[in-house]
Amino acid sequence: MTSRSVLKLVDAHSLTEGEGFPIRRPFPTSSCEDLDPFLMLDEVGPVQWPPGKALGAPDHPHRGFETISYVLSGEKLHEDSTGKSQIISAGDVQWMTAGAGIVHSEMPSADFKAKGGKAHSFQIWVNLPASHKDVKPGYQYVSNADIPVAESEGVSVKVIAGEVFGVSARIGTHTPVWLQDWSISAGATEVLPTPQDFNFAVYVFKGAIAVGSERMPIVDGQMAILSTGTTLLMNGHEDGGRFLLLAGKPLKEPVARYGPFVMNTKEELISAFEDYQAGRIGRIQR
Ligand code: MN
Q: Quick one: which of 64, 60, 83, 65 has its CA closest to 271?
């Protein structure tokens, strides 16, 4: 048994994305390029939009990886070049496999835009292995009510991907990946068994937790990257906290990324741009 310790503490950067909505980004940043197999973690908002003002990300392509939208507040409309559309409401998750290529838009729903309100969500990018980069594009959607919840004393976990306390996610992944929304009360402690070969990180977005063998306090807006090990200690610091747990088996493959494309080589990146510009990735029919 080896207990994971904190390898690195990362402060999220504040910036804007899409049409200009505010985000906090722990990675990729200069202090943390990626967390194999994860490529990006954005916390979008929270932002209070006046009626008619909410912004989103209009039509854009992706190829070679997966994008995950997890909405905490507000309502998004996803539309894509495969002809599908999906309203993603508070608590819902959409796990999109861009694979061979997709064009999608992620905009406030008409109803949310008209009324305004609080928008708060996560956008997470997970890489696909070279062997799966050309899979058929599509998405898995699970509503808030259908996301499995695992509980332990003082701990509640929404299991978006992976498993915890014997509860398995409904979302299927191409390689072993865990993505979970943990709430841990003041004073509660969990020692979680962890697959030794997984990379692990926690990103706190409310309150504070203490994590790792050294019980390092991690506060709102900070991410801790953990060392390898077979257990991970997590404790509700002060009034407790809420955090995303990201874990997965590293792909250990070359990453060539630029903008919305993530491939293995520069040549594949150039092909992706050429295919998009020539309309071969498709477009959204409206
Ligand atoms: Mn996108």
A: 64
